[in-house]
């Protein structure tokens, strides 16, 4: 009579552990690929031509751009004209609510609108609690600081997050780490994106501490999409270039019957 494996036997646990690890690995791949898509790298991975349409789509379309810009612009204009914090905050939050309701009414995805509305709400609450209009911009400092720090550290330790995300999006997972050209390009891109977030802090924090609301709001708008879009296009070009060079250097060997 052969002994059946015990539940505590390492051999009996191995298939379950393998399945769990594979599931976790698949979830990681999906999440990293999704992060790369949200960052706007999907057109580059899919070979879509660089165009105004592709760039606009990567930024969420015309509506996505408007949803990202208009609440902050409304707050800045309203506060500049009235010097009254409450009406400016109400106007900004109302814009976010309108975008959310419009998406619901048209049965469109509300993820971006919800994220924007939550961000506006947190900004408004902070400004109301302190009574300082400049505190409306505090959440932006936190996100820029976190993104900048995480990207910078990832590049410094040799695991640039741009490479991790694009690698999963391109379906090669972490194979790019064995290619010096790809590692170099992804490190450069990650440093550049980290630099964007750090530059925002370097310019805007002094204005925040000086209480200069007009210039703080203006620089936040000017250092948003107007800087994000060119850097995204440059990133597309560099990603496509390195993958095209790799494909040219390693052509498929023709098969013979």
* Rg (CA only): 23 Å
Q: CA-to-CA gap between the ends?
A: 52 Å
Low-confidence stretches: 253-257
Strand content: under 5%
Number of domains: 1
Decide which structural class fits the backbone. Answer: mainly alpha
Count of DSSP E strands? 0
Write a brief caption for the model.
This protein is an all-alpha fold and 257 residues long. The chain has eleven helices and no strands. It has helices spanning 10-38, 42-45, 52-58, 61-82, 85-105, 111-130, 138-156, 161-169, 180-210, 213-222, 225-249.
Account of the protein in words:
By secondary structure, the chain is mainly alpha-helical. The protein has one domain. Helix content is about 75%, strand content about 0%. It is built from eleven helices and no strands. The protein has helices at about 10-40, 40-45, 50-60, 60-80, 85-105, 110-130, 140-155, 160-170, 180-210, 215-220, 225-250. Helix 4 runs antiparallel to helix 5 (about 85-105) and helix 9 (about 180-210) packs antiparallel against helix 10 (about 215-220). The radius of gyration is 23 Å and the shape is globular. The termini are far apart. The model is unreliable at about 255 (pLDDT under 50).
Q: Keywords for this structure?
A:
257 residues, mainly alpha, 11 helices
Write the layout of secondary structure elements.
Elements: H1 10-38, H2 42-45, H3 52-58, H4 61-82, H5 85-105, H6 111-130, H7 138-156, H8 161-169, H9 180-210, H10 213-222, H11 225-249
Helix pairs in contact: 1-8, 4-5, 4-6, 4-10, 5-6, 7-9, 9-10, 9-11
């Amino acid at each position: 009579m052969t002994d059946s494996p015990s539940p505590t036997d390492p051999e009996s646990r191995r298939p379950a552990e393998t399945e769990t690890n594979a599931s976790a690995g698949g979830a990681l791949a999906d999440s990293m690929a999704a992060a790369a898509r949200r960052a706007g790298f999907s057109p580059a991975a899919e070979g879509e031509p660089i165009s105004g349409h592709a760039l606009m789509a990567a930024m969420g379309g015309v509506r996505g751009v408007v949803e990202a810009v208009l609440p902050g612009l409304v707050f800045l204009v309203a506060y500049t004209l009235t010097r009254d914090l409450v009406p400016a905050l109400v106007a900004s939050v109302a814009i976010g609510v309108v975008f959310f309701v419009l998406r619901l009414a048209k049965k469109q995805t509300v993820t971006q609108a919800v994220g924007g509305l939550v961000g506006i709400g947190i900004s408004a609450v902070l400004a109301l609690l302190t009574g300082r209009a400049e505190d409306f911009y505090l959440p932006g400092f936190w996100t820029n600081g976190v993104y900048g720090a995480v990207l910078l550290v990832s590049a410094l330790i040799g695991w640039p997050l741009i490479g991790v995300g694009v690698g999963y999006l391109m379906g090669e997972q972490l194979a790019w780490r064995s290619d010096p050209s790809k590692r170099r390009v992804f490190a450069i891109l990650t440093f550049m994106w980290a630099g964007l977030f750090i530059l925002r802090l370097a310019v805007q924090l002094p204005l925040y501490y000086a209480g200069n609301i007009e210039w703080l709001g203006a620089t936040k708008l000017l250092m948003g999409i107007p800087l994000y879009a060119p850097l995204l296009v440059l990133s597309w070009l560099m990603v496509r270039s390195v993958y095209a060079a790799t494909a040219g250097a390693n052509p498929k060997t023709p098969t013979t019957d």
